[in-house]
Design goal:
550 residues; Alpha-D-Glucose-1,6-Bisphosphate, Chain A, domain 3; TATA-Binding Protein; seven-stranded mixed sheet; seven-stranded antiparallel sheet; 18 helices; 27 strands; disordered N terminus; binds 1-O-phosphono-alpha-D-glucopyranose; binds zinc ion
Length: 550
């Protein structure tokens, strides 16, 4: 083929660097208004492409959660990727792909990486948030070394390049050719559904549904709606009334697409009724988070990963167990106990899914989770909301037990970790940074200090050394452990788009089964007060009480 005649013409546009394009916990997340500034998105994408220096003929996966600006950004990224030498682009129909489905496509299609357009659970619409993540050929998010290099590149960007392409029609699946560029529009659900069918016992789950068990799933007008309709509805027989808010909308219908007890109050209320479903669940805007509830019961995410580990062999994809597990540092240590009993390692990583990826890639772990409603496994390199729902359906169907009964029996065996996160919104980001700075400095001196009925036995500023590549990530949060094994963790959010959010994670271990049905807020109230006083939250930052408790 004469490449000369088929190569696309490109156009170069001059630009001035923006100083604020450092990526956070999960990609570059900004207010839509910020991302729509002239050349803002383009400068960032060019910095990513320059840093990666894609091979000529590279293939990339591109898709997003359907939020406002998704359609515009996708056309720009396609043109820029083509100008950078990519010749095969795999794009979700209508520009839609859930985060785990995109990660799966990158892996199964052996792509050179992918752009995922999402701000996860943050609100959407013109006044909401938008974001861009870049994932590596493994399907996992770019590691810190890459995101740091991209940030350096953003400071030097003076031009970006666009291939001359018409506005592409993303509504039709199939292959389009433009010069040497092939754009393949794929059904967003197909490959993901095939993967789920391999991992879980669909027949058993469908039988469980047919025999009268009720499931409610809320897609929150995010990306998971079409996945839920096909997999939960058509394949497994969940009734249409059980599938809520399944149409992806650019502004999520004004909802905050975050599966937590505050934003999903309606599911908590539904589960409190005598007519509660056997399982209620929700996912977030881009489909990587999950919340699981049952009759008069909400499963804490730290318990979820612990209980899934204890029951993993019931799912066909995990019938041989897993080589190890991991949890993010602030996540409850419930899973550590199950891992110890199974005799497998349990790794403690910084917050952010990307830190699990090396361990997954090296097959050191097979299951992992975060307290922020994130659970996942080696099946992909992102956390996966619908996967967690299917895993729980599989476990409940196989054990023929209710979710609250399963939890109670798990706690009888392992003890219960009461757990809560208190968030404090601090309008002035500098004050939040000063608070953390003081905590880091004083952490070593806290040892021996009384905190309620207990004494602080150790405290540190968490620094992670990746066991696979030896890289170090410092300042990942301050850990304070008491001599009754209670724990307080402090860190600043890395996903916000305004001010600072201080996250305070509280955990108290209770071995006595007679004390397993207590109210979590009551159990942790005193520890929460100790935490606020240790960090001098009011003195530093203003808010006297948490702005959100999950
Ligand atoms: C939050 C969660 C974290 C998760 C991230 C992306 O980050 O705490 O566990 O990986 O969102 O979904 P944070 O805002 O705390 O930096
Ligand atoms: Zn998400």
């Amino acid at each position: 083929m004469n490449t000369e005649s088929t190569s696309l013409r490109t156009r170069t546009v001059a630009c001035t660097p923006y100083a604020d394009q450092r990526m956070g916990t999960a990609g570059l997340r900004r207010k839509v208004a910020v991302l729509r500034q002239p050349h803002y998105l383009e400068s960032f994408i060019q910095a990513v492409l320059d840093t990666l220096s894609l091979r000529q003929g590279a293939s990339l996966v591109i898709g997003g959660d359907g939020r406002f600006f998704n359609d515009v950004a996708i056309q720009t990224i396609i043109r820029m990727a083509a100008a950078a030498g990519a010749t095969h682009l795999i794009v979700g129909r209508d520009g839609l792909l859930s985060t785990p489905a995109a990660s799966n496509l990158i892996r199964t299609r052996r792509a050179d990486g992918g752009f995922l357009l999402t701000a996860s659970h943050n609100p959407g619409g013109p006044s909401g948030d938008f974001g861009v993540k870049f994932n590596m050929p493994t399907g996992g998010q770019a590691p810190e070394q890459v995101t740091d290099a991209v940030f350096e590149a953003t400071k030097r960007i003076h031009a970006y390049h666009l291939a001359d392409l018409p506005l592409l029609d993303l509504a039709r699946t199939g292959v389009q050719r433009h010069g040497q560029l092939t754009v393949e529009i794929v059904d967003p659900v197909d490959a993901y559904q095939q993967l789920m069918e391999k991992l879980f016992d669909f027949e058993r789950i469908a039988h469980w549904i047919r025999s009268g068990h009720r499931v409610v799933f809320d897609g929150m007008h995010g990306i998971t709606g079409p996945y839920a309709q096909r997999i939960l509805g058509e394949a497994l027989g969940v009734s249409p009334e059980g599938l809520m808010h399944t149409r992806p909308l650019p502004d999520f219908g004004g909802l905050h697409p975050d599966p937590n007890p505050v934003d999903c109050r309606h599911l908590v209320d539904l589960c409190a009724l005598p007519t509660a479903p056997d399982l209620a669940a929700a996912s977030d805007g881009d489909g990587d988070r999950n919340m699981i509830l049952g009759p008069a019961f909400m499963l804490s995410p730290g318990d979820s990963v612990a209980m899934l580990l204890a029951n993993a062999r019931l799912a066909p994809g995990y019938r041989y167990g897993v080589p190890g597990v991991a949890r993010s540092m602030p996540t409850s240590r419930a899973v550590d106990r199950v891992a110890a009993q199974l005799g497998i390692p349990c790794f403690e990583t910084p917050t952010g899914w990307r830190y699990f990826c090396n361990l997954l890639e090296a097959n050191r772990i097979g299951l992992c989770g975060e307290e922020s409603f994130g659970t996942g496994s080696s099946h992909t390199r992102e956390k996966d909301g619908l996967w967690a729902v299917l895993f729980w359906m599989n476990v409940l169907a196989a054990r023929e037990i209710s979710l609250p009964a399963l939890a109670a029996s798990h706690w009888r065996e392992h003890g219960r970790h009461y757990y809560q996160r208190h968030d404090y919104e601090i309008p002035d980001a500098a004050r939040g940074a000063a608070l953390m700075e003081e905590l880091r400095r004083t952490a070593p001196q806290l040892v021996g200090r009384r905190a309620g009925d207990a004494c602080i036995s150790w405290a540190d500023d968490f620094c992670y050394r990746d066991p696979v590549d030896g890289s170090e990530s410092a300042h990942q949060g301050v850990r304070v452990v008491l001599d009754d094994d209670s724990r307080i963790v402090f860190r600043l959010s890395g996903t916000g788009t305004a001010g600072a959010t201080l996250r305070v994670y509280l955990e108290r271990y209770e071995p006595d089964p007679a004390r397993h049905a207590l109210d979590t807020t009551a159990v942790l109230a005193a520890l929460g007060r100790e935490a606020a006083s240790l960090a001098r939250i009011t003195a530093h930052a203003g808010p006297a009480a948490p702005t959100m408790i999950v």
